[in-house]
Amino acid sequence: MMPDDNLILSALGDVVTNRTRRTRETAAMRRMVRETRLSADNLIYPMFVVEGEDIKQEISSMPGQYQLSVDRLVADCEEIAALDIPGVILFGIPEHKDDIASGAYAEEGIIQNAVRALKEAYPDLCVITDVCLCEYMDHGHCGVIEGEKVLNDPTLELLDQTAMSHAEAGADIIAPSDMMDGRVGSIRAALDASGFAQTPIMAYSSKFSSAFYGPFREAAESAPAFGDRSSYQMDPANAREAMREIAFDIEEGADIVMVKPALVYLDVIARAREITDLPVAAYNVSGEFAMLAAACRNGWLDPERAFMETLTSIRRAGADIILTYFAKDAARRLRGDKATPLSWM
Hints:
Blueprint: H1 3-15, H2 27-32, E1 43-50, E2 56-59, E3 62-69, H3 70-82, E4 87-93, H4 110-121, E5 126-131, E6 145-146, E7 149-150, H5 153-169, E8 173-176, H6 183-193, E9 202-207, H7 214-220, H8 239-252, E10 256-260, H9 266-275, E11 280-284, H10 286-297, H11 303-317, E12 321-324, H12 327-334
Parallel strand pairs: 1-3, 1-4, 1-12, 4-5, 5-8, 9-10, 10-11, 11-12
Antiparallel strand pairs: 2-3, 6-7
């Protein structure tokens, strides 16, 4: 250091008064002043259920994620319970599809059987069911069609039947994801009239028509046979409309509101947090998972830091609940398990 440098540093000592680095000096200090806390309590693990027995088929675009038969689903949820993850959300893939989505509300449907099996094996696990028709329709759209038009009001009756069948099977939370107008109010009325007034609704309130659902459509075998879902899912450009959708769902009786996707809609999550005191959920969707997993598997990102930073960013934006395929790995790391390999690496 040159003599003049000492003079410069001495002068800076009188000028620099806002030294925020002081509380970053040690790991203990950083922990004490940390603003955003992520825990296993914030996590929900999505799972895909298929007909049959002893099936555990890895999804090619989603490493470490599987289509599971009910018996394997129950076996895999032993780890979920042991990791203290509070709940799972189930997506069903039936053997038979038709134009009235009959498998969605069948008493012995794939989701209904899965819910009963899980609640018998793990009574304290919160079992959430996705209520939509796309996996059960032979055309892959989320509602009844006429020609190539998805009809809103005729779809509501089928959604009501589906929600009630899930509640009757023992589902703890009903999660309608179809984006039909009025479906939260319709499902709430149907549940209340059938003795399920205490069953909460987690509404996919702001579900955008996103490019990031691609791997999910492979996993759930639910790609539309024609067109796309832009007439009912939201335009990715519209944040103000997203707030209207959330407000409508709250008015109709939603107990939890959701933004989907999460990572590329952090601004929408933050705005949702500002307009409601209800719990806000965010779905860290399949494309976001696959994108990060691919970058990490190619050595372009540090896996440990990347996925935890991703979940922290969603929590920081305002989400109370994060639906994520990273849930198991995050729960392990949060409890101090650094030795178990990441399931998607």
